Amino acid sequence: MSIAINASTPDLCSDLPDLLYPSDSELAGPPIPTHAATFEHSGVAVAPQNSPVPKFRVFRILGKGGFAKAMLAQSIEPNRLFCLKVFQKDQLKKIEEVILDELAAYKRVGSSMPCPARNFLMGLELSFQTKTDICFAMDLMMGDLSKYMIDRPSYCCERALRWTSKIALGIRALHDIGIIHRDIKAENILIDIRENVRIADYGLCYIDKYRWPLDRQRAYTASAVGTTCCMAPEVLRNIINIGSKEYGTPVDWWSLGCVVYQLVSKNHRARFASSIAAILLIPSFQALFYKKDDILDYASWCSSGDRISRQHPIFEDFPPGIAKLLSGLLNPNLSTRYGFPEVVRHRSFMRSCGKSEFSDAHSRAREREALPNLLPDIQHHQKTAEVWHCLAPWERLRVPNVDWVKPTFFSFS
């Protein structure tokens, strides 16, 4: 479960507007975004520059999270399947910073210089709103990594290092455009129709005001946000003493270590004593840490003077290369914790052909066979589907500054 402590932090983009309802003076003629579609009260579509109007058939709920729910949908023009991430407007005061942060991150990802690693990041096609909801439309995926680990455990173990290399490339791509994800976990790693991974859910991101690469040695924020089981020690300490220590990009590499542990731990039972899975000796992809005390105890053990050069016992049953990779990523010492340079050169990623998983990662990902038959079925829901329209810009319940369309959205029609 994601948590957000001390939500009113200064690390949001300074130029982001507040999500406030427009005043009466704004209702007469609010500005219409360049690519936004609007609707007459009669339901007749009016789109700028003769663009088709995005409308969606919405079929069913795919899942629910702490801030939003995911809906299976199909755009009418262009005809594509989508996942709608739906935020309720009646929860706006609680989640406005999450919405603004996520939308700002999607816009930055979408507007940055093209780079192959961006294909391992989830992108936004458009955002729109109804009377009751704010919706983000994204590519429909086959599921998240946590679901795959339950449904296809052996498959996940076999592909662990291939997927890890793609996640690492995605993390590096975010850091290169001034974003720290801060909530890397299995539930936020999605699988596409070619069974490649994409990092998703930018609601808890730190977004630097500059778009250039973040400095690995620099601290940027002290916000205590994320999911407990994947939080780095330097973030957790800010829960105990709010704002006591700033941190930077290494927090994402610690979280990657937690995900890698889950991916490779199918047959390993060793856990911390406080874990229910440990007490019951339950194997199969359980998280390494469950409570903040587990992480702090681990960090304390690793930092003891006579143990700094030793490997924690929880990694003893793994092959030496994997154990070293995990120890490097899950290193409490920020100055020696693995980052992208150490991960990309790690011997564990060498394939049998003698090349690294990082070599030609993007081209090999694109060459994988698409498996659209594994996407959710909509045939049985056609008769019960609702059609969702954009809210007219003059209506009182309209929230400004959240409507956006990716410039290439209509090129798929």
Automatic annotation (TrEMBL):
Keywords: ATP-binding, Kinase, Nucleotide-binding, Serine/threonine-protein kinase, Transferase. InterPro entries: Kinase-like_dom_sf, Prot_kinase_dom, Ser/Thr_kinase_AS. Signal peptide: none annotated. The keyword Protein transport does not apply. GO terms for molecular function: ATP binding; protein serine/threonine kinase activity. PROSITE patterns: PROTEIN_KINASE_DOM, PROTEIN_KINASE_ST. Residues 56-349 form the Protein kinase domain. It holds the Pfam family Pkinase. This is Protein kinase domain-containing protein. The lineage of its organism: Eukaryota, Fungi, Dikarya, Basidiomycota, Agaricomycotina.
